[in-house]
Design brief:
Length: 440
C-alpha cells in the first residue's frame, strides 16, 4: 500500500498457514488495504480487542480454536459482533457452508484463492459494513432526536396542562371580578329603595304606637270619653296620622316595587339556561345590563356623571341568542367603556362631558350593536392585541385581561363578529355584528 494513500479499510487475516497469510496480505496491501495477521483463533480474538478491524478473513481449519468457534465467540461479543467475517475454506460440502452462515458469517471463499475474487468480496462487504455503520449512526442520531422530542412533548404537555390550570384560575378570577362589579351595581341600585323603606319605618312605628294608644283610650272609655281622655286623643293628632299613613305606605311600596324590579332585572341578566338559545328582546337585554353598571355611570370626585345615550333603531328587536352570554358580553363592553373614560380622567386629560352611546340598527342581514365612548382610546401598538387572552394595559391587580377576550369568543359563538375602531385620546367604538340568518 502506498504510504501516502489512505487505506480503504483494515483487514484481519487469520490463517495458520504462513504461505496463505503472505499471499493474501500482499494482495490486500496492493489494493490499498491495511492488513493485520493472526495465526490462530486465540491470537485473532486477542488482536480484535484492541485493533478493531473493519473486516476479518478467517480460515476454518486451524489447530486449537477452529474458525467456526472463533466466529462464534466474536459474534457473542457485542463489541465485535458487527464485524463482517468471510470464511476461507477448502471445505466444499454444503453442511459446512450452512454452518458458516448460521454462525453469522457474511460470506466465504474457497481455496485455492482467486485474488480478484477475494478483493471483490472484501470490497463489497466492506462497503456494506460502512453503509451499515452510517445507517446505525443515523439511527442513533434519530433515536436521540426522538428521545429529545419525546421529552420535549412530555414537557410541553405538562406545561400545557399547567397553563390550562392557570387559565382556568384566571378565567374564574375574571368571572369573580365581573361578579363583584355586578354585585356592587346591584347593591348601589338597592340602596335607594332600601333607604325609602328604612326612612319610613320609624314614622310608621310611631304612628302604630299612637294608634295603639288611641285604641286603648277608646277601649277604656267605650261610650263617652272623659275630658281627660279627650285631651289625650287630641294630643295624638290622629287626623295627621290618618292622612300621612297612606303617604308612608306608598313610599314603602315604591321601595319594595323597585327592589322587586331590580331582582327581576338580575334574573333577566343572569339567565341560568346559558347553554340554550332563546329569542329575546335585544333592547330589553341591553337595558337589563345597563342596570348592572348604573352605579359606575354616576358622578365621582374626579369626574362628572357619564351621560348615556340610547339610539335604538331596530324595526324588530327580537333576537335568537344565548341570553346570559350575550348579556355578559355587553356588560364587559360597557365596563370597558367606563374604564376608558376613567383612564382618560386619571391621565389628567380634560373631559368635561363624558359620554357613552349605544346604537342598534339593522344592516342588510345583520344586527349591529355599537357601544361608543369618548374615553382615552387605544394606542396603535396595542390595537392588534385587545382581543388577545390575558392582554391588559391596566395596572396589576385591576384585571387579568380576559374581559374583551371573553366578549370576542361569545360573539364568535353567535356566528358574529366583534370589531373595534379607536383613536387615541378621543375614544373607541365597539361593534357587535350578529347575522340575522341565524335568528329563528
Amino acid at each position: 500500500m502506498n504510504e501516502q494513500t489512505m487505506p480503504l479499510g483494515t483487514v484481519l487475516v487469520v490463517d495458520d498457514n504462513s504461505h496463505n497469510l503472505s499471499v493474501i496480505s500482499e494482495c490486500l496491501d496492493a489494493n490499498d488495504f491495511e492488513v493485520l495477521i493472526a495465526k490462530s483463533g486465540e491470537s485473532a480474538l486477542e488482536k480484535v480487542t484492541y485493533a478493531r478491524p473493519d473486516i476479518i478473513l478467517l480460515d476454518v481449519m486451524m489447530p486449537g480454536i477452529s474458525g467456526f468457534e472463533t466466529c462464534q465467540q466474536l459474534k457473542r461479543n457485542p463489541k465485535t459482533a458487527n464485524i463482517p467475517i468471510i470464511f476461507m475454506t477448502a471445505l466444499t460440502d454444503t453442511e459446512s457452508k450452512v454452518r458458516a452462515f448460521q454462525l453469522g458469517a457474511a460470506d466465504y471463499v474457497t481455496k485455492p484463492f482467486q485474488e480478484a475474487e477475494i478483493i471483490a468480496r472484501v470490497k463489497t462487504h466492506l462497503r456494506l459494513h460502512q453503509a451499515l455503520k452510517k445507517v446505525q449512526i443515523t439511527n442513533n442520531i434519530l433515536e436521540e432526536k426522538i428521545h429529545q422530542q419525546t421529552l420535549a412533548e412530555e414537557q410541553l404537555r405538562a406545561t400545557l396542562a399547567e397553563l390550562k390550570t392557570t387559565q382556568s384560575k384566571l378565567i374564574q378570577a375574571e368571572k369573580l371580578s365581573s361578579l363583584g362589579k355586578m354585585v356592587a351595581g346591584i347593591a348601589h341600585e338597592m340602596n335607594n329603595p332600601l333607604t325609602f323603606i328604612e326612612g319610613n319605618l320609624a314614622p310608621m312605628e310611631e304612628y302604630v304606637q299612637q294608634l295603639a294608644k288611641a285604641i286603648e283610650i277608646y277601649r277604656t272609655n267605650p261610650l263617652i270619653p272623659s275630658e281627660y281622655a279627650q285631651e289625650q286623643l287630641n294630643s295624638l293628632d290622629l287626623d295627621f296620622i290618618l292622612k300621612d299613613i297612606p303617604n308612608v305606605l306608598r313610599s314603602m311600596k315604591t321601595g319594595t316595587t323597585r327592589l322587586e324590579a331590580i331582582i327581576q332585572e338580575l334574573r333577566n341578566f343572569s339567565h341560568l339556561d346559558q347553554a340554550t338559545e332563546k329569542i329575546i328582546d335585544i333592547h330589553e337585554a341591553i337595558d337589563h345590563t345597563l342596570i348592572m353598571v348604573n352605579h359606575r355611570l354616576q358622578a365621582s370626585p374626579s369626574r362628572a356623571a357619564i351621560q348615556l345615550h340610547k339610539n335604538y333603531h331596530l324595526p324588530l328587536s327580537q333576537v335568537k341568542c344565548y341570553p346570559q352570554l350575550l348579556n355578559q358580553a355587553i356588560f364587559q363592553l360597557m365596563l370597558n367603556a367606563i374604564d376608558a373614560i376613567d383612564a382618560k380622567v386619571n391621565s389628567a386629560q380634560e373631559l368635561s362631558a363624558p359620554e357613552i352611546t349605544i346604537t342598534t340598527q339593522q344592516q342588510e342581514n345583520c344586527l349591529l350593536i355599537s357601544i361608543s365612548d369618548n374615553g382615552i382610546g387605544i394606542a396603535p401598538e396595542n390595537y392588534g392585541h385587545i382581543f388577545d387572552p390575558f392582554f391588559t394595559t391596566k395596572p396589576i391587580g385591576q384585571g387579568v385581561g380576559l374581559g374583551l377576550s371573553n366578549a370576542y369568543q361569545t360573539i364568535q359563538r353567535h356566528h358574529g363578529q366583534l370589531h373595534c375602531q379607536s383613536t387615541l385620546h378621543q375614544g373607541s367604538t365597539f361593534d357587535i355584528i350578529l347575522p340575522l340568518k341565524h335568528q329563528g
